[in-house]
Write a structure and sequence with these properties.
The chain is an alpha/beta fold. The chain has 2 domains: 122 residues, Oxidized Rhodanese, domain 1 (3-Layer(aba) Sandwich); 121 residues, Rhodanese-like domain (Oxidized Rhodanese, domain 1, 3-Layer(aba) Sandwich), CATH 3.40.250.10. It is built from 10 helices and 12 strands. Helix 4 links the parallel strand 4 and strand 5. Helix 8 packs across helix 9. It starts with a strand and ends with a helix. The relative contact order is 0.16.
């Protein structure tokens, strides 16, 4: 089943799903995701705060929380294990993909969590209905099950430089990957993990409406960047957000769940 759902599908099935607005903006964007949600969102959607709903015990940005906290977070959002969740965003970094991946990591059925293709940008372009009403929540008892095989850590990345068990794909822009510009976060080196390959996430998106490119085109883009989409891949970026955009694209291509380096450059690039 495709991890993507169309705007047309969502409008038709809006009463049958739980909708999450997982908008997140880069720290230097001067945009406020919560305020934007309060002004305009898809009806019945619930705001999902990627920063707050992450591991608060460590200094690295929006790392995956532990299972107990995740169960509390999702239960408070009124989501049940058998709910079909549709995640969207209004972000230039397509942050809904990170929320989608987090639900997969904690064992939600792959057929019951999807990303709205094109997000709020496409929804608005098509003049579909918006709301500023608060969605009422009834707490549930959500139960999670960790899929530890979907995440790699610093040591695995380090060991892979010589062992080459998987291909690490970096979703950052080319200038950041090549170390030609400073990182947006302080105290980080420039450059990339030795042996990793670069596929900027923007290459796989149609900029006019934020939709993903079609499967055949995605496959061609991966190959043109020296990446075999059917070999063992892991995805990285600045802090684990756009890595999940590439991860979702790889799932569109090969129907396999993606593997993410959760710490990404925010961890690996520490001075």
């Amino acid at each position: 089943m495709s991890p993507l759902k169309s705007t047309k599908w969502l409008e038709k099935n809006i009463s049958k799903v739980k909708i999450l607005d997982a908008t997140w903006h880069m720290p230097n964007s001067n945009r406020n995701a919560i305020k934007e949600y309060e002004q305009n969102h898809i009806k019945s959607s619930i705001f999902f705060d990627l920063d707050k709903n992450s591991n608060q015990q460590i200094s690295l940005p929006h790392m995956l929380p532990d299972i107990q906290n995740w169960e509390k977070i999702v239960s408070r959002l009124g989501i049940k294990n058998d709910d079909h969740i549709i995640v969207y965003d209004n972000s230039e970094v397509l942050s809904a993909s990170r929320c989608w991946f987090t639900f997969l990591y904690f064992g939600h059925d792959i057929n019951l969590v999807s990303v709205l293709d094109g997000g709020l940008k496409k929804w608005k372009l098509e003049n579909r209905p918006l709301s500023n009403e608060t969605t009422s929540l009834i707490e549930t008892k959500y139960e999670a099950k960790v899929r530890s095989d979907l995440v790699i850590n610093f040591n695995q990345v380090e060991n892979n430089i010589n062992k080459k068990k998987f291909c690490l794909v970096d979703a950052r822009g080319e200038n950041r990957f090549k170390g030609l510009v400073d990182e947006p976060r302080k105290n980080l080196k420039k450059g990339h993990v030795k042996g990793s390959k670069n596929l900027p996430f923007s290459k796989i998106i149609n900029s006019e409406n934020n939709t993903f490119k079609k499967k055949a085109e995605l496959e061609k883009i991966f190959i043109n960047h020296g990446i075999n989409p059917n070999e063992k891949l892991a995805f990285s970026c600045g802090s684990g957000i756009t890595a999940c955009v590439l991860g979702l694209a790889s799932t569109v291509i090969n129907n396999k769940l993606p593997v993410i380096y959760d710490g990404s450059w925010a961890e690996y690039g520490l001075k």
